[in-house]
Amino acid sequence: MSDAKMLAFETDCHIFEGCGFPTPGLHSFLFEPMFTVGGIEFNKPILLALLSTVVVLGFFWAAFRNPKLIPGKLQMIGEAGYDFVRRGVVYETIGKREGEKYVPLMVSLFFFIWIMNLWAIIPLAQFPVTSVIAFPAGLAALVYILWVSLTFQRHGFVGGWKNITGYDRSLGPVFPMVMFFEFLSNLFIRPFTHAVRLFANMFAGHVLLLIFTIGTWYLLNGIGIAYSAVSFLMVIVMTVFELFIQALQAYVFILLSCSYIQGALAEHH
Amino acid sequence: MISPLVVQLAEEEAQNPLIPEIPELVIGLIAFAIVFFVLGKKLLPNINTVLEQRREAIEGGIEKAEAARTEAQSVLEQYKAQLQEARHEAARLRQEAQEQGATLIAEMRAEGQRQREEIIAAGHAQIEADRKAAAAVLRQDVGKLATDLAGKLVGESLEDHARQSRVIDRFLDELEEKAEAAR
Predict the structure, then answer these.
(1) For B26-73, what is each residue's pLDDT tens digit?
(2) Which of A114, A123, A131, A138 has the alpha carbon at shortest distance from A205?
(3) What would the pLDDT profile of A218-268 be if each residue is shown by its tens digit?
(4) Which residues of A are less than 8 Å from B25 in CB distance?
(5) Of the candidates A99, A11, A56, A40, which has an alpha carbon nearest to the alpha carbon of residue B27?
């Protein structure tokens, strides 16, 4: 590990000063522990994850603690968010009758993930918690366990396997192959893609933001100032873009969760 | 400067960023569990209750609004009927007042006419009386003047004689009659 892997802010080195561009990379996602409690090392992502809990609960506590028939501003915003997940996602995919049970889970997932993503563009925090695989992986695992147990609970042992493997004799001779791929896809690839989709999006978004932010700083010397301005413009553009992606990825995560649960609850054809 | 720990971490994980760290995994799940528990147990049931109440309130409100609309309709009809009645009444009163006024004017006109005639008649009578009185006085004076004048001409007093004989009266009556005839 050389000094070149440090961030530009830490080197305070600009172009034409004899140092290379301090490219962001995997090392940008590693954090020194800030303090240790009971053998657990608390680093920035962990603290931001806990802070996300505080933010989500703080907002909903303020909005829904003492809800009124005629809502105040905060309650109205909270209701809009709640309604978006409840009717816009859960009712649309699972349906009202079966889906009501999963509304709290999906609301929690959506806002928790969204806030964890949102840290990427919050000054001082500036790091999407979900770009550390452990966080999306844990949540995806939760949904995966729920999905598998629901499948077997609803269809029994044999029916559950039929559901997972997409058992369908009408497909003719290819149906064992279909079953094999469905089995692989549903049981192994699905949880992986569910977690990685969120992780990779936030990871890539953070790298992009870093490249342009570091670039803005690094180019700040001589003629480089002109390029620095362009790089800074890109920082702003990417920040706005990330704002959109953060909400979108949180939405996609719960949309997929709902669609998995819907698949588990659906009658086997 | 980068600490040895970060370097060590970087070397471990640089190979695979897809392997989750256990502490992060556990703490992430705990953080989520807290959110899920508080939202699911307390806050979302709260808001669901209120949303349900609001739905009922809105439905109740619609029913109330319907009732109020019906009532307003009936009140409006009553009001319209009353207004119609009042208009009829007003028209009738106006008609009556006009008729009464007309009779009143006619009566007053007749009364005035009568009073005028009375005044004129009284005036005429007064004039007649005055004229008669004047004529009577004039007659006496004229008779006296005439007899005085005649006595002076004749040289003796004719007064008593004349008075007895009523000559003057007759003469004057004749004059009067002539005047009457000429008129």
Answers:
(1) 999 999 999 999 999 999 999 999 999 999 988 888 888 999 999 999
(2) A131
(3) 898 888 899 999 999 999 999 999 999 999 999 999 999 999 999 999 875
(4) 134-135, 137-138
(5) A40
pLDDT at B77: 95
ipTM: 0.89
Structure tokens at A218: 């690094």
User: Of the candidates A1, A39, A8, which has an alpha carbon nearest to the alpha carbon of residue A220?
Assistant: A8
Q: Which of A208, A58, A195 is nearest to A121 (CA)?
A: A208
**Cβ A179 vs Cβ A165: under 8 Å:** yes
Q: Which residues in chain B have their CB less than 8 angstroms from residue A53's CB?
A: 31-32, 34-35
- Indicate which of A2, A108, A115 best probes the interface with B, i.e. most B CBs within 10 Å of its own CB: A108
pTM: 0.70
- Show the tokens assigned to A149: 């147990």
pLDDT of B2 above 70:
no
Q: Are A212 and A234 in contact (CB under 8 A)?
A: yes
| A residues 79-108 closer than 8 Å to B (CB) | 79, 82, 103-105, 107-108
Query: Which chain B residue has its CA at the smallest distance from A45's CA?
Result: B24
